[in-house]
């Protein structure tokens, strides 16, 4: 391998520093450091002196002021309790005199905040919005009735008199009541949603342009849409979309009045009606008078509810009274429960402490719920071909929300009362389902037996019982019922679940109760559940439509059964995995099993049950890889498989049997050729023999077989089409041969790899797209360099002939324009050469003498290494000179810093020339401001830390000569 790499001897003479690898490893290990009670800790609250008042907000927000030291919240806590630095400054400016926390007024204020705020444990309406929109959809055509004059609004002229403005606005409102209507027909669901969004945007634009009457028109017209139940399946989604507009309108009105309250200083958010000036109060009253003039009942109720929060500017007593009045007026509205959910939503936002109003809302709901079974409703359902169970489902979001608002932090006595009132209605499965969903899981779990009794009494035709058991199961997944009741609860639930005929209904309910089973029972019960699932989901391949639920079952089992000897001893676990027959899903499931095993199995195992099951999982992963599988996926699977094998005591190195077989598959993935099929079988046999060799159980016959398999692999690999498959297999086969002490075969494989490198094209097709091959080539060569550390020199080829040959190939290869790949590989080669010059190598192959043994630190061998290092450094410096143009300065900075880091890690910087070179490279990397400041600072800290090590005192002086330069 005669080198034609020009050896440009610069003024630099390379000397590798001694690397005590074991000492470096010990120094790099993390150790436990005792922390005293008063020491700093990043998660410990910061102690400050607080003399300011925090703005009142959600529950947990404190408004105390103290001159003594107290624990201040961290920034994340401040976000949660509704405070932020700007708000704190504003509050301090608005109220300079604050009573102390120990005073009576401070106590009252804290109590007031606890009453008015809701905590983060309350699930807001916004989280339910997207779920409702996704759940209640339709394919039927929709229509929308709108006032023709909505798009004709214009702002009044600035010179108009006040009386003229008032008269004009009243005429516009009258025109709204009596004007013509425009009906848009045959709208798809998406068209309808888009039209509503346009109206919401028009509302904001009208408000921004000071067209308040036009904005009110839009809100009134949208409110009228809520009386239309033509496509009843879509009504919950329509309700959500339109109430969004109402929320927008209410927010705009409130913010306008709030801005009018401040005269010269910022107006606090926690104000009383006495703090509001007359102008703001008059404006607020005007809005209520405008809304009171709306003739139609439903729009008036909704718009008044939207601005209900504005009563805070007038009187707090009005909030409670108006909530009660609006609730009474909604008695006969269509889909009355949905309308009451809006009141509950506004009530929780405005005054969640007014529990009487919320409770009355719920008990009135129970009274009016019988309207669901009235003749008018039945006739409407008949016309729209909607069954009673499907119709009742429409009410579930609203009923659930109302119950959630009522039960939020409610005493147990109130929850019990509501439960009893639901019982008195009899056979009302919808309410019972909402009760189990909205009440605290602990409350439901403690009375699980009572709820099962109520479920049994419900009418199956009105609301399916499996939905009720599903809701009960969700509560029991979060809270534990009494231990004596658990087996009876499971038996009662499964009696209903196993009788379900619809596979989709069955798996939806079974998936919920799997968690209860895993949480409280042994593998025997879980195995029985899995058997029942297989029985129901196998006929007619029903499992193909239930992959998400089946995956959820696997996740829940892995959560509670992380002892894999127990998990894999379940007879039905592997048959359950066989139901995942879609490639992508099967790979994902197997991957989840492998990741949990790697995380939880800390000690290597020889348990045959675990080994057999894991081999089944690994084979599934192996068989899933196809010719078009992304190379990144292949690499990640290969890493997972290797981690699995290392924990199973069946692999001692990357050259062992199963790992070799799967690595071959991940590299080639082309089995349509019979020759390649036989090749893979041969590699499998080679791997099996490798296992015997590494255990020491091999004979001459075995060694001969290994050499024969290696020879067959050598002549078969060239038949592969993919050049990177050939390269990877040559390298992998060379590693296997080296592990079996077949040195000549290993040498032949590695030489073949080097000879193949010039044939690598500059681009290749990946997933049907042309991509640069440079990244793949860099990855392969770096892997190859790490292998060369343990490969002994051939006695007839000269010192480091494989390293020299590889460097020649790197120099002659046609790299991409404006690429630094060649120089980066030179820097990687420096790391290899520095490692080769050590007395003891970082790693070795058992029973193979590497160069550390062959040369024993011979001065001539070290001198050859130093010459190669000097040549490579010269090549890198020459390349850095070519990057002096303005457009390449960033690349120059990055490469200079890389070479500097290599010198710090591997060179003996006691040599003055090397030391000066390192300083020059640092200065070059910092000169134009393109260096990463954080990385540079950490590097300096490392150098200073190293200076405290034995024989590293010269690093102290080096650190002083490495200034940080900023961008100018």
Describe this structure in words.
The chain is an all-alpha fold. Among the domains are: 124-144 and 182-314, no CATH class; 500-649; 723-931. The protein has 45 helices and 6 strands. The radius of gyration is 38 Å and the shape is extended. The two termini are 49 Å apart. InterPro entries: VPS35L (IPR029705).
Lay out the secondary structure.
Layout: H1 21-28, E1 46-49, E2 69-72, H2 75-80, H3 85-94, H4 104-116, H5 125-135, E3 142-147, H6 162-178, E4 181-187, H7 189-208, H8 212-224, H9 235-260, H10 278-292, H11 297-306, H12 316-329, H13 336-350, H14 355-368, H15 375-384, H16 388-393, H17 396-407, H18 412-425, H19 429-438, H20 441-446, H21 448-457, H22 465-478, H23 486-497, H24 503-520, H25 523-537, H26 547-560, H27 564-567, H28 573-577, H29 583-600, H30 608-624, H31 631-646, H32 657-668, H33 674-694, H34 700-716, H35 723-739, H36 743-756, E5 763-766, E6 769-772, H37 774-788, H38 801-812, H39 821-836, H40 851-855, H41 859-881, H42 889-906, H43 912-926, H44 933-946, H45 954-960
Antiparallel strand pairs: 1-2, 3-4, 5-6
Helix pairs in contact: 5-9, 7-8, 7-9, 8-9, 8-11, 9-10, 9-11, 12-13, 12-14, 13-14, 13-17, 14-17, 17-19, 19-22, 21-22, 22-24, 23-24, 24-25, 24-26, 26-29, 29-30, 29-31, 31-32, 32-33, 32-35, 33-34, 35-36, 35-37, 36-38, 37-39, 38-39, 39-41, 39-42, 41-42, 42-43, 44-45
């Amino acid at each position: 391998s005669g080198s034609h790499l020009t050896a440009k001897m610069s003024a630099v003479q390379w000397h590798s520093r001694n690397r005590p690898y074991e000492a470096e490893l010990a120094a790099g290990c993390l150790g436990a450091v005792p922390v005293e009670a008063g020491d700093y800790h990043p998660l410990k609250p910061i102690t400050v002196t607080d003399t300011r008042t925090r703005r009142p907000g959600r529950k947990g927000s404190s408004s105390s002021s103290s001159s003594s030291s107290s624990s201040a919240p961290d920034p994340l806590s401040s976000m949660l309790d509704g405070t932020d630095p700007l708000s704190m400054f504003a509050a301090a400016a608005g109220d300079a005199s604050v009573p102390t926390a120990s005073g009576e007024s401070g106590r009252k204020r804290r109590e007031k905040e606890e009453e008015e705020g809701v905590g983060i444990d309350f699930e807001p309406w916004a989280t339910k919005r997207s779920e409702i929109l996704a759940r209640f959809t339709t394919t039927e055509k929709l229509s929308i009735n709108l006032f023709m004059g909505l798009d004709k609004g214009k702002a009044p002229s600035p010179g108009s008199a006040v009386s003229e403005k008032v008269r004009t606005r009243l005429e516009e409102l009258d025109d709204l009541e009596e004007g013509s209507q425009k009906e848009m027909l045959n709208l798809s669901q998406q068209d309808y949603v888009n039209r509503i969004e346009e109206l919401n945007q028009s509302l904001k634009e009208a408000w921004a342009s000071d067209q308040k009457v036009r904005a009110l028109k839009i809100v009134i017209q949208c409110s009228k849409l809520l009386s239309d139940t033509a496509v009843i399946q879509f009504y919950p989604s329509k309700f959500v979309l339109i109430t969004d507009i109402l929320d927008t309108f209410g927010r705009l009105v409130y913010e306008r009045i709030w801005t009018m309250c401040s005269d010269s200083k910022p107006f606090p958010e926690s104000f009383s009606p006495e703090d509001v000036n007359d102008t703001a109060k008059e404006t607020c009253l005007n809005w209520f008078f405008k809304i009171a003039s709306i003739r139609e009942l439903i729009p008036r109720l909704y718009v008044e509810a939207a601005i209900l929060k504005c009563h805070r500017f007038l009187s707090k007593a009005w909030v409670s009274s108006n909530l009660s009045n609006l609730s009474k007026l909604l008695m006969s509205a269509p889909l009355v429960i949905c309308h009451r959910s809006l009141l509950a939503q506004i009530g929780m936002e405005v005054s969640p402490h007014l529990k009487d109003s919320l409770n009355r809302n719920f008990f009135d709901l129970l009274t009016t719920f019988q309207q669901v079974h009235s003749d008018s409703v039945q006739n409407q359902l008949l016309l729209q071909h909607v069954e009673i169970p499907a119709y009742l489902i429409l009410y579930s979001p609203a009923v659930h929300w109302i119950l959630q608002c009522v039960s939020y932090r409610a005493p147990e006595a109130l929850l019990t009362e509501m439960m009893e009132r639901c019982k008195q209605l009899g056979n009302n499965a919808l309410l019972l389902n909402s009760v189990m969903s909205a009440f605290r899981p602990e409350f439901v779990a403690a009375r699980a037996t009572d709820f099962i009794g109520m479920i049994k009494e419900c009418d199956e035709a009105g609301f399916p019982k499996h939905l009720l058991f599903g809701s009960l199961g969700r509560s029991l997944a979060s809270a534990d019922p009494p231990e004596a009741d658990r087996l009876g609860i499971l038996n009662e639930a499964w009696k209903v679940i196993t009788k379900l005929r619809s596979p989709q209904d069955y798996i939806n309910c079974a998936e919920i109760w799997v968690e209860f089973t895993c949480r409280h029972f042994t593998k025997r019960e879980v195995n029985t559940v899995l058997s029942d699932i297989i029985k129901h989901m196998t006929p007619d391949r029903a499992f193909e439509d239930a992959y998400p639920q089946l995956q959820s079952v696997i996740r829940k089992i892995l959560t509670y059964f992380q002892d894999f000897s127990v998990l894999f001893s379940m007879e039905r676990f592997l048959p359950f995995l066989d139901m995942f027959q879609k490639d992508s899903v099967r790979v994902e499931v197997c991957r989840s099993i492998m990741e949990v095993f790697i995380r939880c199995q800390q000690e290597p195992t020889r348990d045959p049950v675990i080994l057999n099951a894991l081999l089944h999982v690994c084979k599934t992963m192996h068989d899933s890889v196809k010719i078009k599988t992304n190379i990144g996926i292949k690499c990640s699977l290969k890493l997972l498989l290797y981690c699995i094998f290392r924990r199973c005591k069946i692999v001692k190195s990357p050259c062992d049997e199963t790992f070799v077989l799967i690595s071959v598959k991940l590299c080639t993935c082309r089995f349509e050729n019979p020759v390649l099929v036989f090749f893979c079988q041969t590699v499998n046999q080679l791997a099996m023999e490798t296992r015997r060799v590494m255990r020491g159980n091999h004979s001459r016959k075995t060694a001969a077989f290994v050499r024969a398999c290696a020879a067959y692999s050598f002549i078969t690999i060239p038949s592969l089409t993919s050049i990177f498959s050939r390269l990877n297999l040559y390298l992998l086969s060379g590693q296997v041969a080296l592990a079996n002490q077949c040195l000549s075969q290993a040498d032949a494989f590695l030489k073949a790899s080097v000879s193949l490198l010039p044939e690598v094209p500059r681009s290749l097709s990946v997933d049907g797209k042309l991509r640069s091959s440079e990244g793949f080539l860099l990855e392969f060569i770096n892997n190859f360099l790490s292998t060369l550390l343990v490969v002994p020199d051939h006695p007839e080829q000269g010192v480091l002939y494989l390293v020299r040959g590889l460097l020649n190939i790197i120099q002659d290869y046609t790299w991409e324009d404006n690429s630094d790949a060649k120089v980066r590989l030179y820097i990687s080669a420096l790391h290899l050469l520095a490692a080769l010059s050590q007395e003891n190598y970082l790693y070795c192959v058992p029973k193979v003498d590497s160069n550390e043994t062959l040369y024993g630190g011979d001065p001539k061998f070290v001198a050859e290494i130093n010459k190669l290092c000097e040549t490579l450094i010269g090549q890198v410096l020459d390349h850095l000179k070519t990057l002096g143009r303005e457009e390449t300065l960033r690349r120059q900075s990055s490469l200079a810093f890389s070479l500097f880091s290599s010198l710090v890690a591997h060179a003996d910087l006691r040599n003055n020339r090397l030391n000066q070179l390192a300083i020059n490279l640092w200065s070059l990397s910092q000169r134009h401001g393109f260096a990463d400041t954080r990385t540079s600072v950490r590097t300096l800290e490392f150098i200073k830390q190293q200076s405290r090590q034995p024989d590293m005192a010269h690093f102290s002086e080096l650190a002083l000569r490495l200034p940080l330069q900023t961008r100018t």
